[in-house]
Sequence to fold (1164 residues):
Amino acid sequence: MLIDKINQPADLKTLSANELNNLAEEIRLGIINRTSKIGGHVGSNLGLVECTIAMHFVFDSPKDKIVFDVSHQCYTHKILTGRKDGFFDEDKYSTISGYTTTAESEHDHFCVGHTSTSISLATGLCLGRDLLKENYNVIAVIGDGSLSGGEALEGLDFAGEYKNNLIIVANDNQMSISDNHGGIYKNLKLLRETNGKAEQNFFKDLGLEYKFVENGNDISSLINAFLQVKDTTCPTVVHICTQKGKGYMPAESDKERWHFHAPFNIETAEDSSQAPYGFVQYARDLLIERINSNDKITILCAGTPGAIGFFAEYREKVEGRFIDVGIAEEHAVALASGMAKAGTKPIFCVQSSFLQRCYDQLLQDLCLNNNPAVIIVYSSGIYPMRDATHMGVFDIAYTSSIPNLTYLCPTNASEFKDCLDFAINQNSSPVMIRLPMTKFVQGDSAIDFTKKSYQIVNSGSEVAFIGLGNHFEITKKSADLLLEKNGINATLINALYADFVDEKTLDELVQNHRYFVVVEDGILQGGFSQKVSAYLSKHGAKTLCYGYKKEFMDRFNLKEKLAENRISEDLIIEDLLSIISK
Amino acid sequence: MLIDKINQPADLKTLSANELNNLAEEIRLGIINRTSKIGGHVGSNLGLVECTIAMHFVFDSPKDKIVFDVSHQCYTHKILTGRKDGFFDEDKYSTISGYTTTAESEHDHFCVGHTSTSISLATGLCLGRDLLKENYNVIAVIGDGSLSGGEALEGLDFAGEYKNNLIIVANDNQMSISDNHGGIYKNLKLLRETNGKAEQNFFKDLGLEYKFVENGNDISSLINAFLQVKDTTCPTVVHICTQKGKGYMPAESDKERWHFHAPFNIETAEDSSQAPYGFVQYARDLLIERINSNDKITILCAGTPGAIGFFAEYREKVEGRFIDVGIAEEHAVALASGMAKAGTKPIFCVQSSFLQRCYDQLLQDLCLNNNPAVIIVYSSGIYPMRDATHMGVFDIAYTSSIPNLTYLCPTNASEFKDCLDFAINQNSSPVMIRLPMTKFVQGDSAIDFTKKSYQIVNSGSEVAFIGLGNHFEITKKSADLLLEKNGINATLINALYADFVDEKTLDELVQNHRYFVVVEDGILQGGFSQKVSAYLSKHGAKTLCYGYKKEFMDRFNLKEKLAENRISEDLIIEDLLSIISK
Fold:
């Protein structure tokens, strides 16, 4: 195998054209094998194999610096820069992250997982290089939908006036994660159809040089193009046309479903993850029902319909009432505000980690205007994700400070339904709902939203447990354990509202409760429990707050991470008894 | 006066061309008079008088909906829609806000103060209109620098695929707040020079229709253009070329300084606000010193150099080391991360309210990568601003949850200098510094940053006062008052770190202090005091937290607002004594 000889990019440079092509096929197998076992970004990586080989053939990494946008397409880069074991040795798959990460290699310059950042980060490297009078190439690799994000567009606009070496590889695979959306993709299409020669050229408009590579899966064309732009002293876009999923038939034919894929059987292409029915599917089916019975509802999403369960066949069921704005989260929130202002009911479905891109739009465009749009937050808390870049643990904390925003955290399907119907049927303010991310539980609820209050599940005394959202279950188990161990019949509360300190309920509780335990599935600092604790503090009640310490959690063991933060019924009761006994 | 007859837009429609021109001059005087007395956006509004008259002549507001970007150029709109008293009756100047606000009029569709939001908000109205099968025009008025913001570019990209009525008036006054920055402005220049005929057309390339108006201060040309696009069923950009500051000579000749201006003498154009030397000037002079002695420093700003004291003559002093990226805050943070990664020391100077646009870039691009860039936060807290859209009261709360970020809140010039030098000289993590916003105090400090800890100003017992940043002074006065009134020698602490709970210091204090008072200049929910309170709570210490309740504060009386939140030495001591006596 050729791959056996490749331990660093320099090893590529002695290979013949034929050998490079053969190496590409070997790499492809490594990618397919790894993703079939542990899941990953199949299509994105298969499309970029040749481009990555050509980049490392032409440029001298890490002196020349390649910055991957989103970085979910960095597998070939990792294979070529000393990390092939993560793809060719099954025992070591899990030692290598699916994203660029500075801790792994000097060839990775940034930890990246969100889209549209590469041009700005790369331009930063360029300005630093210029100031220090150093000399190297900086290459930003963007595409796969990222071009429509505001940060990328700001970066392109800035690069249009920059006057030294910067190479922007625009990987045009005719796809975002799902279909492409936005006018810029019409221009890419025109450029493809004219072999890059159309006068109408978005990149040139901004002042950038432009080069077109018709076959972005042909190594020699790519090498030729990169040699032409290497060491140039002006920013250049190299527009390469690639085939997403190339080399694995199922991924070539259903590009959306194979952008990211759970573990699968290579022969049959069947999903082998055995993922059970969960809240994402429940929410999707419920949303389809609600759309069909309410003319005013539109579902909005920002480039990730699959992540919210809306693959093509489901989008078709609500024709015209599902709008994918492409990767443009800021626009999505402002759009929702406008649609609500106009008298309709937009429901923006977004992953917690990506909602971070809209703090100001939430605050100003939506909440200052108090328009009654609905936001459903997916992939929140500690359960669904393991990469630092995608952890949904910040949303409760950073939305804490936003006036007019109701943030509901239901604990089961029935409560989610109640919350959604409340959000749809009210018109007084924006409502955000955190979709549960635990194992699917149907539940049986009938929440009375006429009074905004915590839900009292059990009335006891001495100790009150207050659980929020995904961690309500652990809170409940803690109360049960306390009863079992010490005979204390504690009060148990399902807080439901992440944004709200229920002063009335707390004032009552403080009369016959000396100890409070608050548990949330998010970062402690700035979060829900600290709000409750601060309110109780003036009464001198002792409160234990449980959430995560402020850190970036990356590729952790769930059980260990929970234990580190003392989130389990055993540890909580241990802590509680130690203060009670004092 | 013609203006006497204008009480609503319909009153315009009977005026002759000549009368419309005369009306424009009357309005101009109103704008100059008002801003000369209470300050405001002089240049931006003077340039848009004719366009606004033409819009209200052609369209039927509020049925047709005009959405102003940033909305600091809405004065003529307000004058024409029933609010002329705010411009022509000196006693009523303060009754009308300088921004569009839904509470004031049905002609204002959104509360807006941040840039780059209009296209997305307007498109939201369009989609809502379409869903309800209604029929009206939606007009977004953008320009004056806003086009380079990511949200605007996302909006344009989306609009390029939209298929019904949307009119985007791009006000091209050849200026941002300061000079224009970014490649898009090169294209606008080309379009101006070719009378809109150049093949290279950024808007057309995104799929938008395009119309050029050479003289955007000529009412009849504008009316003609608007009549052509009224009721059309595709999105169209109307590119109008206007003169910023038109009609007031000083504002025409120094566009940057007159974008916004403090009260001034109309005859002499002299500033009559008598603003004293403050922290902004101090920081600017210090930054210039540091740049001159350190080759690695670059100052970054995002479109607002004047707000950080760097008018043209100061930028010239640090030639090439001051980079205005234009209105593109997300790009600025990512750029800073890249520059720091490359081994240099970028210092991004940004207003608190605008930093809100970069939560995710702070979290992911900067702090996850732990690159040692410096951010200086201006216009923070309650003192500098009075408009809901510009209040800098959220930063402590929403950055609470960001790992790796040190956020320093010095209380005087000397401490600011210590903080800045620490931030410049360390290379281990990003450091953010909140520039003090109180009356200028020189101070005399020598902070020891080798140990990260709160600063103990006075050691006492029983009660500990912990003050942060701008409100340290009130905390100190409270301690003094307590001593005076009750003879209690309280401990006084200058917290310095907004991001940090100093557990060691608190553990010591809790031994001989039963009551804690924490005061910060920001929203309470998610803020600094709640973190301290939550930590103390497990010890059963009673803590009083002072900051602002979660609300949008708009055009308030400072003293009343502080009192409402019980932030004064008298009220704090009153609260404290009431719990001590319990």
Observations:
- Chain A has three domains: 2-8+17-248, 279-434, 455-580.
- Chain A has a mean pLDDT of 96.
- Chain A touches chain B through 114 residues (CB under 8 Å).
- The domain at 2-8+17-248 of chain A is CATH 3.40.50.970 (Rossmann fold).
